[in-house]
Design brief:
Chain lengths: 289, 165
């Protein structure tokens, strides 16, 4: 384990002050489940760590039937997945969280941490992106809100600048007659990191799809929006043939690599399978309503 | 530079000066001599180091000791504070033969306690989900699942409505 200074500020102002004062080499830590592993593997050696867990008001989960859902940066994965409104309105996000790691890690880790860690396999990214989530980044100079689509820049790389802290994630209220799904495959069928993940959110107007979001995990340097697949599904009634075609198109758009978890070829084939299943589940959930 | 922390472990108050990079697992095992909590993978993948912090299970290998300042930690030693009378979960593990080499046992038992606190009557599927990620290299999983089910029954019988175990 590298040696570092540790700070646990009580207010956001103090945290921002410390971040500026300590400068480069200072790392933020929410639940610590990624930061600790990276440090013990020697992939991260910060000079200083600023813990976010002690900051008042950062751990809230708020739901408003008009405004949607706001997840505070230090809200634990388990708390988010067991929140009654999250369970009612955002089942795909609940599915994604439940597929992650084990009970202990979900009791520690946070959604904001999963996003800031920016792994291409981040399970919460596809459901959040398909639902049009935005993140709030606060720095000493002020606050900005960014769509998650603009947040991921590469494996471990984000649009966040040094000196900024992600304070919350905002998810709009899902439209009426919409449904969402998140499906993933991993070697051990859970507990381990996803080899492929697919998130879908679709809104229908009668039989026709009014709008759709399709985001793929672990098959590109960032969680990848399958824009061509979205465009062939939008405005259409989803037939079996169209869903088949969408799976093939999504596989085409995926840009996977071969690594310890899966080969590129297998990943592409699984993108096709999971995309079809996720489209079907989203459609079914929308119909059930 | 060491930081001064105060925390409660199994009902006892401790005040320690610890280096910020030391994990809760190290401090429990090396400074407090509570070696019932094991260290397996060190990366949150095996469950052997599971303890409770403020009533919920965490991986002590991924928890900085300084982060539990002001908090209450419960380890496997806290399941049987007298050292004589075992907790119903421990009794059930013994009775069903759910312990082989014993390395995963304390983590399994803490995970079982966390599960039963939230869900006093878990189905087999729910027990498996509650223990998922806890690895037993002797592969005695069937007996462990059975032990949790037996413990759940005993705890339901013993426990007055609404009381915490």
């Amino acid at each position: 384990m590298p040696k570092f200074e540790y700070f646990s500020p009580k207010t956001l102002e103090d945290a921002l002050g410390l971040l500026a004062e300590k400068g480069e080499g200072t790392h933020l830590m929410a639940g610590g489940t990624d930061v600790m592993v990276k440090m013990s593997h020697g992939r991260l050696a910060p000079k200083a760590i600023i813990a976010l867990q002690g900051i008042e008001g950062l751990n809230g989960i708020r739901f408003d039937p008009k405004e949607g859902l706001t997840i505070g940066a230090s809200a634990r994965l388990a708390e988010v997945a067991s929140h009654p409104d999250v369970r009612s309105y955002y089942p795909a996000l609940v599915n994604a969280i439940q597929s992650m790691a084990n009970v202990e890690v979900r009791n520690m880790g946070t959604v904001a941490g999963n996003i800031c860690n920016a792994a291409p396999s981040a399970d919460t990214a596809p459901p959040l992106m398909t639902m049009g989530a935005e993140v709030t980044l606060v720095g000493l100079k002020g606050e900005r809100r960014l769509s998650l689509d603009q947040f991921f820049k590469g494996p471990g790389l984000t649009a966040m600048e040094h000196g900024e802290i992600m304070t919350s994630i905002h998810v709009p209220i899902p439209p009426a007659k919409s449904g969402a799904s998140y499906l993933r495959i991993s070697c051990r069928c859970g507990v381990d990191i996803a080899a492929v993940g697919v998130g879908v959110m679709a809104e229908f107007n009668g039989k026709a799809c009014k709008q759709v979001g399709i985001v793929l995990a672990a098959v590109a340097p960032v969680p990848l929006r399958a824009t061509k697949t979205e465009s062939i599904m939008k405005g259409q009634a989803w037939t079996r043939e169209l869903i088949e075609q969408a799976g093939d198109q999504a596989a085409e758009e995926a840009k996977p690599i071969s690594d310890v978890r899966a080969s590129a070829e297998w990943r592409k084939r699984m993108v096709a399978v999971l995309t079809r299943r996720a489209l079907e589940e989203a459609q079914e959930r929308a119909t059930r309503g | 530079m060491k930081l001064q922390i105060k925390f409660n472990v199994n009902g006892d108050e401790y005040s320690l000066a610890v280096e910020p990079w030391r994990t809760l697992n190290e401090v429990l095992r090396e400074d407090l001599n509570l070696t019932g909590t094991k260290l397996g993978c060190g990366t949150g993948d095996c469950g052997a180091c599971t303890v409770m912090v403020d009533g919920r299970t965490v991986s002590s290998c991924l928890t900085l000791a300084v982060s539990v300042d002001g908090k209450a930690v419960r380890t496997v030693e806290g399941l049987a504070p007298s050292g004589e009378e075992l907790h119903p979960i421990q009794e059930a593990f013994v009775k069903t033969g759910a312990i082989q080499c014993g390395f995963c046992t304390s983590g399994m038992e803490m995970a079982a306690l966390n599960l039963l606190n939230h869900n006093p009557s878990p189905s087999e599927k729910e027990i498996k989900a509650g223990l998922a990620g806890h690895l037993c290299r002797c592969t005695g999983y069937n007996q462990i699942v059975e032990a949790v089910s037996v413990a759940a029954e005993t705890m339901r019988e013993n426990k007055p409505e609404g009381a915490d175990s």
